[in-house]
Structures are given as C-alpha cells and as structure tokens.
C-alpha cells in the first residue's frame, strides 16, 4: 500500500434537502473532490498526495469540509474555486489557509476535555 505525504478527505455526505446541519454533497462536495483530483493529477502529485471522498465526517454544518492529514487541519466552506490555493499553499508549501480553517472549538462532537489516545506503536 502506498504511503502518501498528505491525504485530503472530502466529505460527500448527503442528508437531503432542508436538513438543519446542511449537507457537504449538496453544498459542492462532489465538484470539490473532482477538481482536487484533477488538479493534483495535472500537477504530477499523484502518488504523493491523495484526495479521497468520504461519507460523513460529522462537520457538514461547516461544509463542504476537507480534513488534511497528516496535519489534522479542518477546512470548511471549501469550494472548487479554492482548490488552486489549497494545492499551491497548503499541499506544496505547508501553509495553513486561515480563512478556511474550522477552529477546534467549532468542530462538532469534539470533546475538548478528553485525553488523546496514545500513538500507535509499530
């Protein structure tokens, strides 16, 4: 299995019309993922960076959302038009796009008092 330098998880959850928490798919998630995959391939980053569509990441109220690993950065309200900046600045230069960041305190379901799990030992 290949090891990627970065993984971009794009929520594609669809809750249907009118759901109070929104729906990443219905707010542009599919178009966002297509653009990410295309632009990453166009820049020769296939095999180094991977964009993956996921089911619910629990953050549709901020959607569409992208979770970038290994940095564990959550971006919200990301649109296909943000992809060039996301690749140029975050993927290639390691810069955080502050205007898209979902702050930790705004993440849904995150218990800020919980103790993190220990790292996996290999």
UniProtKB/TrEMBL annotation:
It comes from the Bacteria. This is Ferredoxin, 2Fe-2S. The gene is fdx4.
């Amino acid at each position: 299995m290949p090891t990627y330098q970065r993984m971009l998880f794009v929520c594609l959850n669809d809750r249907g019309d009118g759901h109070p928490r929104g729906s990443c798919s219905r707010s542009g998630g599919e178009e966002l993922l297509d653009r990410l995959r295309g632009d990453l391939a166009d820049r020769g980053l296939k095999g180094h960076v991977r964009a993956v569509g996921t089911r619910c990441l629990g953050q549709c109220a901020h959607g569409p959302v992208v979770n970038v690993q290994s940095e564990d950065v959550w971006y919200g309200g990301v649109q296909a038009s943000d992809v060039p900046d996301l690749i140029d600045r975050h993927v290639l230069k390691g810069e955080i796009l502050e205007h898209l960041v979902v702050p930790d305190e705004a993440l849904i379901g995150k218990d800020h008092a919980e103790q993190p799990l220990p790292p996996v030992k290999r």
